[in-house]
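Tokens as discussed.
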């Protein structure tokens, strides 16, 4: 049996009763035999990224975020799209990792769960590609009309979405188990 994987989940929505938060709960339930998923709770505590502050005196919140990423076997990002873009707090968090490369070769799974979501999804895919998250183009899913597909009980109710999510989780686990560089 493979070792259990330690996963850091990042929700791009900080809203109460977020669909993306419920989707992370659904994924945690689907993968409970293989993954220990911790939800990152510090998105709103991170300071606004400023390259001038990205030095040895960086804030403890940023240090903590980077440590969580370094310790994780893989990262799951679930996010809505805002105004055809990536939510600012999520992009801000990722910007804090660009200089220190926490996402470099880190197996990273991206789900954009939104009303439509395609612009934000493409934008975040490009960001994760350029910071070299491992296998990102094979570990991504766009779920449109997401609020109709994940219910209040943290269940994915749309069968196509459920099957796609299961397949995505399989590829995510394979990527974590592969020790070669995939892309
Ligand atoms: C400020 C704002 C802008 C939004 N812009 C978009 C958008 O451009 N495209 C889209 O698909 N949904 C947009 N939405 C809708 C949300 O993405 C959608 O409600 C999503 O399900 C919210 O995710 P959450 O439930 O995890 O918070 C926007 C919502 C807000 C609050």
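Sequence:
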């Amino acid at each position: 049996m493979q070792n259990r994987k330690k996963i850091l989940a990042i929700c791009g929505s900080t809203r109460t009763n977020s669909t993306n938060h419920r989707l992370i709960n659904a994924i945690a339930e689907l993968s409970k035999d293989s993954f220990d998923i911790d939800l990152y709770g510090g998105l709103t505590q991170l300071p606004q990224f400023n390259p001038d502050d990205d030095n040895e005196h960086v804030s403890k919140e940023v240090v903590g975020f980077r440590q969580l990423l370094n310790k994780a076997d893989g990262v799951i990002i679930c996010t809505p799209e805002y105004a055809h873009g990536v939510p600012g707090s999520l992009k801000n968090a990722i910007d804090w990792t660009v200089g220190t490369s926490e996402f470099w070769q880190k197996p990273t799974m991206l789900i954009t769960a939104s009303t439509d979501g395609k612009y934000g999804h493409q934008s975040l895919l490009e960001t994760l590609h350029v910071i070299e998250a491992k296998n990102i183009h094979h570990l991504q899913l766009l779920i449109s009309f997401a609020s109709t597909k994940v219910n209040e009980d943290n269940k994915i109710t749309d069968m196509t979405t459920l099957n796609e999510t299961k397949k995505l989780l399989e590829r995510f686990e394979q990527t974590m188990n592969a020790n070669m560089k995939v892309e």
